[in-house]
Amino acid sequence: MKKTCDDWMRHLPVGKFGPHLFPEFEKRAKAVSAEIFRVKTPSEASEVVCNLARFTNAKKVVSVAGPLQEAAGIDGALRAAGIEVFNDPVDIATHAATADIGLSGVEFGIAETGSVCQDGYAIESRLVSTLPPLHVAFLDSNLIVPGIIEAFETISRVFDRGYISFITGPSRTADIERVLTIGVHGPSRFVIVAVDDRRQEGGKAS
Predict the structure, then answer these.
(1) Which pLDDT band holds residue 199 (cuts at 50, 70, 90)?
(2) How many domains does the chain divide into?
(3) Average pLDDT of the segment spanning 166-185
(4) Measured torsion, CA atoms of residues 112, 173, 192, 101, in degrees rounded to the nearest 10
(5) Where are the alpha helices (DSSP H) in the chain?
(6) Mind giving me the DSSP string for 17-28?
(7) Rounded to an integer, what distance in angstroms lies between the CA atom of residue 83 and that of residue 63?
(8) What span, in angstroms and rounded, lies between the C-alpha atoms of 43 and 106?
(9) Of 18-22, 181-185, 196-200, which range is least confident?
(10) CB atoms within 10 A of CB 53
(11) What's this model's pTM, rounded to 2 decimal places?
(12) Is the pLDDT of residue 107 over 50?
């Protein structure tokens, strides 16, 4: 999968990010209707996703692989539960519009707004985060910057060409008579699974 940057963590502003910012990030994210599950390990993240799939009666999932998802073995766990999972770019393009859940990773969170930054250079990343009614994003809870200034400082260090997304809660609009409507232009639910330790049990790095 093409990315604007393969190692975003290396470009985060030194001394200006960390897990101490997570409580503020969580507060702001929940204020814009994002749902947050903070877990310690990738395996726990896999349990969260499988539970979401079960509770929503999901039959089809489109998934863009990332370090946290791979460490958790999420695609395999969903398939073992009898759910169709499509992670090939061509299959994602074919099935994203009819999938129940889209899975993707994000690069870092922004405490000031409760947003996450997604490297959307690959079109499949954009498809899984915009077309299914439920988007589940995997975030390393250690990678939180204070605000928009630090976010753009990071992006300026890596961006040459591509596509960067800021995702702040589920899709919402108030274009019609200024009545707020959720899910018109994108997912009606946005779930962030924040993982404290990106290593899989046994010490294997993701």
Answers:
(1) low
(2) 1
(3) 63
(4) -160
(5) 22-31, 42-55, 67-72, 74-80, 89-95, 123-130, 148-158
(6) -SGGGHHHHHHH
(7) 12
(8) 18
(9) 181-185
(10) 25
(11) 0.90
(12) yes
Residue 105 within any structural domain of the chain = yes
26 occurs within a structural domain: yes
**Domain membership flag for residue 168:** yes
Domain extent, residue 143, equals: 17-195
The β-bridge partners of 36 are 192
Q: Can you tell me the distance from the alpha carbon of 48 to that of 46, in angstroms, rounded to the nearest whole number?
A: 5
Q: Tell whether the model's pLDDT for residue 72 goes beyond 50.
A: yes
Please list, in sequence order, all residues whose beta carbon lies within 8 angstroms of the beta carbon of residue 165, skipping any fewer than 6 positions away: 117, 118, 120, 126, 129
d(CA 139, CA 128): 16
What pLDDT band is residue 161 in, cutting at 50, 70 and 90? Answer: confident
Place of tokens 């204070």: 146
The closest alpha carbon to 103, from 117, 124, 122, belongs to 124
26 close to 36: Cβ distance less than 8 angstroms? yes
Q: 50: which 2 tokens? A: 């499988």
| Residue with tokens 């099935």, as numbered in its chain | 95
4 within a domain of the structure (yes/no): no
Name the strand (E) or helix (H) holding 186: none
